[in-house]
Amino acid sequence: MAVAAALVAAGKHVYVPFFGAHSRVDLVFEDDVSFHRVQCKTSRLIGQVVAFNTCSNTKNVRKDYRGEADFFGVYSPELKRVFLVPVDEVPFRAGHLRLGPARNGQAKGIRWARDYLLDATNNEAAIMDP
Fold it and tell me: Closest by alpha carbon to 117, among 106, 129, 109, 105?
């Protein structure tokens, strides 16, 4: 529900699949370009990282969402924020969005949470001050 509410607040039209109870898509949103399929995920905050699963695990069989969803709608209960992450931009098993710099100083290849924040104002300060 948090993902749908954030999309609506950002000015998107949101639709919930009616006959797809076992579908790999939780909702669909429309923007000026097209319709987009969204798989919703709840994240966990691990230090300065928003972590979320990017595959399902049914009977010890992992299956990713490539080709079946366009975005992960990631809700962080700790931050009370939603991130919209393209499925093709994250690894097969787990996604990580960084809130602050890495301890080892690495900057290359990092997915910054602020770049994926779904917020009507898209305000970076909103991430760090829930």
Answer: 129
CATH of the domain at 89: 3.40.1350.10
Q: Which domain holds residue 50?
A: 2-128
pTM for the predicted model, two decimal places? 0.85
Per-residue pLDDT of the chain (130 residues; tens, 9 = 90+): 999 999 999 999 999 887 666 678 999 999 888 999 999 999 999 999 999 999 988 788 888 999 899 999 999 999 999 999 999 999 988 999 999 887 787 778 889 999 999 975 544 444 444 3
Lookup: tokens for 34: 């097209």
Question: What are the percentages of helix, strand and coil residues in the chain, rounded to 5?
Answer: 15, 40, 45
Total number of domains in the chain: 1
Give me the half-sphere count of Cα atoms (radius 13 Å) on the Cβ side of residue 23: 17
What's the token pair of residue 121? 């104002």
Strand-pairing partners, residue 39, are: 72
Sign of the CA dihedral running 97, 100, 106, 107: positive
